Amino acid sequence: MAARRPPQDLPSSTKSFADLGLSPALIAPLARVGVTAPFPIQAVTLPDSLAGRDVLGRGRTGSGKTYAFVLPLLDRLARETKQRRPGRPRALILAPTRELATQIEATLLPLARALSLRTATIFGGVGAGPQITALRNGVDIVVACPGRLDDHVRNGHARLDAIEITVLDEADHMADLGFLPVVKRLLDQTPRTGQRMLFSATLDAAVDGLVRRYLNNPITHSVDSAKSPVVKMAHHVLHVRHDDRLAVLTDLTSAPGRTLVFTRTKRGAKALTRRLVAGGVPAVELHGDLAQGARTRNLNAFTEGSVQTLVATDIAARGIHVDDVTLVIHADPPVEHKAYLHRSGRTARAGASGMVITLMTDSQVDDVRQLTREAGIRPKTTRLGPGDPFLAELAPGERTLVSPPPAPERDALPPRQRGRGSGRRSPQPARDAQPARATRTAQPARTRTGQSARSGTGQAAQSTGGSAATFSSRSRVGRR
Question: Which of 152, 386, 398, 412 has its CA 20 to 30 A from that of 207?
Answer without folding.
Answer: 152
